[in-house]
Design a protein that fits this description.
TIM Barrel; two-stranded antiparallel sheet; globular; cobalamin binding; Cbl-dep_enz_cat; Methylmalonyl-CoA mutase
């Protein structure tokens, strides 16, 4: 006796065409033109229909490869005081954090103290730093008989440092190549974290974020390939750090589109069978509010849901206030725990697969993101496009649209531009001063939306 699995849970019911749905909408709303008006003009310039049917689904669906179900919660800890950071990390691991990121801002870190009692074979540790990269490599090589089983990675993104601070690129690609070479046999250690959250923080649209992220990846892969590294190693050891905002479905589609397009980039490098690069999602700083800050907990919850449903491999949730305290860290950590333990979002590999709306939106974001990526490549790549001002001008233009929507209350931040707490003072208005590189090229300056709108 054989059994078959139906392709649809509702196969016994007759399917309705999109035209039939539209006719029903027109009938119910007593307006033949109603369907044309039922669209969402997103802040990022995409026109999104109010509903979708199988007819809107991209041919064959949108396959989003991911190696496993669920995600790992990665707690970020400021680590300029290495002893205190180590204590906080051990406490976070005990209370549910599965990974740690140590954020270092200076040189001469005491890695022996920082990593004390942390088993790098069990708990992945990412080290985020902007300089003194060689000291960390020396520590790992000196203090581990074998590097193969270590878990974690380097969050060293010199292109980000150049685009946002003007830090010279100098010998950074040689340092990255050395890191890849040292950790080449460590399957669970990423050699490169390509950050894109700063594009979002500067006001880039979702398609722009996708295009800029791909451009950054290509820039790194080209330069590191020139240093003798093969594309399979580069792809497998690259992690994307992506900021996730409050536009729920759009952010789900953004992560899915990134996976889809990254496979296309791999194919262009001759790496068709590439294992998917990991995606690390972070909550957005762009829409974080200082007034009525408790509302940020709700924003972080929807952002975390978008990240996990969109297929992030790991997730960091910032404290809902500017205060990194045991309380705010616990709240952030517990958002992830609730999504796992009570919402069961870790039970499937691709939670949004089969949703006509999300798959159609993924396709639209991918098309628009790829178009912007091609525009950057036509100017010689990310660094060349930055030098001409194309990147900054494109992002600034979109940021200005966001600010206008915010001021008109068409983009609502509860407790900030609508439903304000009358007992709280309005945020102080200020405009970020324009900054430039040593050669006078304007930098990408992250500015929270509410601050820009107040100026």
């Amino acid at each position: 006796m054989t059994t078959s699995t139906p392709t649809s849970l509702f196969s016994e019911f007759s399917a309705q065409s999109k035209a039939q749905w539209e006719a029903q909408v027109a009938k119910d709303l007593k307006n033949p033109e109603a369907v044309q008006g039922l669209v969402w003009n997103s802040p990022d310039g995409l026109v999104v229909p109010s509903f979708a049917t199988p007819e809107d689904r991209p041919q064959g669906g949108v396959f989003v490869p991911k190696s496993s179900k669920g995600w790992q919660f990665r707690e970020c800890i400021l680590a300029d005081n290495q002893a205190q950071a180590n204590t906080e990390a051990l406490a976070a691991i005990e209370k549910g954090a599965q990974e740690i990121t140590f954020v270092l801002s200076g040189k001469n870190a005491d890695y022996q103290t920082l990593f004390k009692k942390i088993n790098l074979k069990e708990t992945p540790v990412t080290v985020a730093l902007s300089e003194d990269f060689g000291a960390l490599l020396s520590f790992l090589e000196k203090n581990n008989a074998t590097l193969t089983p270590l878990k974690g990675g380097f969050a060293f993104d010199p292109i980000k440092e150049y685009l946002t601070k003007g830090t010279p690129l100098a010998a950074c690609f040689e340092q990255l190549a050395a890191a890849f070479t040292l950790m080449k046999d460590s399957a669970h250690w990423s050699g490169l974290q390509v950050s894109s959250s700063y594009f979002q923080a500067a006001g880039a649209s979702v398609p722009q974020q996708v295009g800029l992220t791909l451009a950054a990846v290509v820039e790194y892969w080209n330069k590191l390939s020139d240093k003798g590294l093969d594309i399979k190693t580069l792809s497998a050891k690259t992690e994307l750090e992506v900021g996730v905002g409050t536009h729920y479905f759009m952010e789900i589609a953004k992560l899915r589109a990134l996976r889809l397009l990254l496979s296309k980039v791999n194919a262009a490098f001759g790496n068709e069978a590439a294992a998917p690069s990991a995606i690390h999602a972070t909550t957005a700083s762009y829409t974080l509010a200082t007034t009525d800050p408790d509302t940020n907990m709700l924003r972080h919850t929807t952002e975390a849901m978008s990240a996990t449903i969109g297929g992030a491999d790991s997730l960091s949730i910032a404290p809902h206030t500017s205060d990194y305290s045991p309380f705010t860290s616990r709240i952030a950590r517990n958002i992830s725990t609730l999504l796992r333990e009570e919402s069961y979002l870790d039970r499937v590999t691709d939670a949004s697969s089969g949703s006509y709306y999300i798959e159609n939106l993924t396709d639209e974001v991918a098309k628009a993101g790829w178009e912007f990526f091609q525009a950057i490549e036509a100017k010689g790549g990310l660094l060349a496009a930055f030098e001409t001002g194309f990147v900054q001008e494109s992002v600034a233009e979109n940021h200005a649209k966001h600010v206008a929507l915010w001021k008109e209350k068409k983009w609502v931040l509860v407790g900030v531009n609508k439903y304000l707490n009358p007992k709280e003072a309005a945020p102080e208005a200020h405009e970020a001063a324009a900054q430039t590189t040593a050669s006078g090229v304007r930098l990408l300056t992250p500015v929270p939306l509410y601050e820009a709108a107040q100026s």
